[in-house]
């Protein structure tokens, strides 16, 4: 059986930038929420496309957020997860930075009128992996074409 | 592009029971937390094996929890997610119900002295899928042998 190991900041950063799908976690007065989303990373921030009046649009602005990505290999019985933490910021499309507007956008799987973004400039970035002797980046199911 | 559709309770129930890996989400005084875990379902409760002094052991007892499972098919650009909500309950091994002790246990990938369980008897079970014309259960990467 494997042991849990902390990932370095650089490893977390590389995995987060390589991914396209993760989960935004935050707290509402009624309790915790988790919303699966496609995303992109620009600078040191996660960006998620959302729509007016969604949970993210209504409750994720100005509050502590956690953004989580992970991958599990069931056959080899190992996996990794990376967590970015910071304060969420709702951003109207016209307030996106130039770099954010021109970056390769998150996959657009949902058919709706999107008109809002959520930005999470992370304050901390941590992650864990199970076991050693394997490279998390080599086992990604999909990887952003733009990833360095 | 696909649209989001609500999954029925029965669909959510079936997907949750078929899985082995998900994420526990809860709130600490310092902000939200998300912990990836292996799990099992017994009766109408999610059960997670944990260890003394972990985040789950210390902060998930007696508070609102969300348990999330999802699956994404990047090639077909669709996926689903299921969320169980309720109040978490820390359970010492000797207080597990008979049915919980004898059920097929969650995969044990982490090497540590486990001596604590977290039980989440769900109050609500909801889920969403992207698009139609495909069956979420047929695209599971892995499925519990014990799933009905």
CATH class group of chain A: Mainly Beta
CATH topology of chain A: Pnp Oxidase, Chain A
Mean pLDDT of chain A: 89
Extended strand count of chain A: 9
Query: What is the number of helical segments of chain A per DSSP (H or I, 4+ residues)?
Result: 3
In total, how many domains does the architecture of chain A comprise?
Answer: 1
- The helix fraction of chain A, in percent, is 10-25%
Note poorly predicted spans of chain A. none
Helix-strand category of chain A: mainly beta
CATH superfamily of chain A: Electron Transport, Fmn-binding Protein, Chain A
Chain pair with largest interface: A-B, 38 and 38 residues
Share of β-strand residues of chain A: 35-45%
Give the radius of gyration of chain A: 16 Å
Order of helices and strands of chain A: EHEEEEHEEEHE
Terminal CA distance of chain A reads 33 Å
CATH architectural type of chain A: Roll
What does the largest sheet of chain A look like? 9 strands, antiparallel
Oligomer: homodimer
Rough outline of chain A = globular
Pfam families (chains A, B): Pyridox_ox_2 (PF12900)
Protein name (chains A, B): Pyridoxamine 5'-phosphate oxidase family protein
InterPro entries (chains A, B): Pyridox_Oxase-rel (IPR024747), Split_barrel_FMN-bd (IPR012349)
Feature tags:
homodimer; 148 residues; mainly beta; Pnp Oxidase, Chain A; nine-stranded antiparallel sheet; 3 helices; 9 strands; 45% strand; Split_barrel_FMN-bd (chains A, B)
């Amino acid at each position: 059986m494997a042991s849990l190991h902390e990932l370095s900041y650089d490893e977390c950063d590389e995995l987060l930038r390589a991914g396209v799908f993760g989960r935004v976690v935050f707290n509402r007065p009624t309790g915790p929420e988790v919303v699966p989303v496609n995303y992109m990373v620009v600078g040191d921030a996660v960006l998620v496309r959302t729509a007016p009046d969604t949970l993210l649009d209504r409750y994720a602005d100005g509050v502590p957020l956690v953004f989580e990505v992970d991958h599990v290999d069931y056959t080899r019985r190992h996996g990794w997860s990376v967590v970015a933490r910071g304060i969420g910021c709702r951003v109207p499309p016209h307030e996106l930075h130039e770099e954010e507007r021109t970056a390769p956008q998150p996959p657009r799987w949902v058919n709706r009128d999107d008109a809002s973004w959520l930005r999470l400039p992370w304050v901390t970035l941590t992650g864990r992996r199970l076991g050693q002797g394997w490279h998390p980046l080599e086992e990604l199911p999909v990887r952003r074409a733009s990833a360095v």
